[in-house]
Amino acid sequence: MTFDVFKRELQVIAAAQAIVEKEQVTTKDYEALLKSYEKLFKSTKRLVKLSDRNEEELNKIAKALDEKNATLESLSGKLGKYLSPQIYDSIFSGKQDAELKTERKKLTVFFSDIKDFTATTADLQPEDLTYLLNKYFSEMSKIAIEHGATIDKFIGDAMLIFFGDPETKGVPEDARACVRMAIAMQRRMQDLGEIWKAKGYDMPFKMRIGLNTGYCDVGNFGSDQRMDYTIIGGEVNLAARLESAADPGGILMSYETYALVKDMVKAEEREAITMKGIKREVRAFAVTNILDGFEKERRVVHHEAEGLYLYLDSDKLSPDARSQAKQQLKAALERL
Q1: Does some domain include residue 193?
Q2: Is the Cα dihedral 219, 222, 226, 228 positive or negative?
């Protein structure tokens, strides 16, 4: 059974048509037609009011939904800062569920920390320490994201990062991306050191990096109420062990990683490493060409001498400022 919205209108029109067709039209005919029209008008008026009321309610609901969507978008953006971009995307796209589940995958693991962090920061005020650590982690995170790394966590002054999950380009390319990232980080640390010296910090951070490629358990660990997407296993511990044996400002990697990247870096073999949980003796290789060609790429120049102070941070120069800087440097050279 269907409901005809215009049933009454059609009835009034039919009545009016019948009157028109009559040879003689009486007053009663007009009165009947007028009553029918009045009833129709009242019904239409009620419908209009109801429609306006419904439209107002719908507008209120739409506005509330927009506000809730904006709130959810803001919250999800804030939540994203606590997760690696890849993990965030996989969760919010529905590719990954929030359940206790792990997989075994071959990953390239990055572990780093600051050499003598406690001694270096012992005399720093909390505000200065906060600035240095946040600047350090921000700069390193930016480089990690640019190279497609999954940032696992910050542990004090240390960083745990890995390649190969949830996205991978294959084990060899994951290892190569990790080494490129590590070199970029150490180069950026050179610039940061100059920036910090110019700001009065006479003991800039020196980062050590350990790299290893091997099978790890990766996924959600914890409880149903609180879980953490991370990696565990002996190969992760080995990356940390390699880091502790690395030179300040250096990169030390296992043979498993070196074998995948030996055509793109220069390295020298160091003393083999042994550790609990790893039966084999681990061959270690230190990257020796981290700063090759870096002077041409350096973004920060800082030099002080009697009668001379030079500080240049090219990242902060606008095109106009660059042009002015060139003119000032040229004028300064003419006076020497």
Answers
A1: yes
A2: negative
- By CB neighbour count within 10 A (0-12 exposed, 13-18 middle, 19+ buried), where does 88 fall? middle
- CA-CA distance, 216 to 256, in Å (whole number)? 14
Q: Residue 152 — pLDDT band, cuts 50, 70, 90?
A: very high
Query: What is the pTM assigned to this prediction?
Result: 0.72
Q: How far from 174 is each of 43, 105, 290, CA to CA, in Å?
A: 72, 12, 19
Handedness of CA 220, 221, 226, 230 (dihedral sign): negative
What does the block give as tokens for 322?
Answer: 């660059």
At 74, the amino acid letter reads: S
Q: Which residues form the domain of 167? A: 101-297
Alpha helices, DSSP H, located in the chain = 7-21, 27-80, 85-92, 117-121, 126-146, 171-198, 234-245, 255-261, 294-297, 319-335
Which CATH number characterizes residue 138's domain?
Answer: 3.30.70.1230
Same domain for 120 and 43:
no
Domain count of the fold of the chain? 3
CB of 109 closer than 8 Å to CB of 217: no
> Percentage of the chain with pLDDT > 90?
46
Same domain, 113 and 186: yes
Residue 63 lies in a domain: yes
* Residue that the structure tokens 């074998």 belong to: 259
Neighbours of 275 (CB within 10 A): 13
pLDDT tens digit sequence for 241-296 = 999 999 999 999 999 999 999 999 999 999 998 887 777 889 999 999 998 876 66
Cα separation, 57 vs 45, in Å, equals 18
- Is there a domain that residue 75 lies in? no
Q: Are strands 278-287 and 267-275 parallel, antiparallel or unpaired?
A: antiparallel
Q: What is the dihedral of CA 39, 41, 44, 50, to 10 degrees?
A: -90
pLDDT of residue 48: 79
The arithmetic mean of pLDDT across residues 174-200, rounded, is 94
Tens digit of each residue's pLDDT (9 = 90 or more) over 53-76:
888 888 888 888 888 888 877 877
Q: Is residue 225 part of a domain?
A: yes
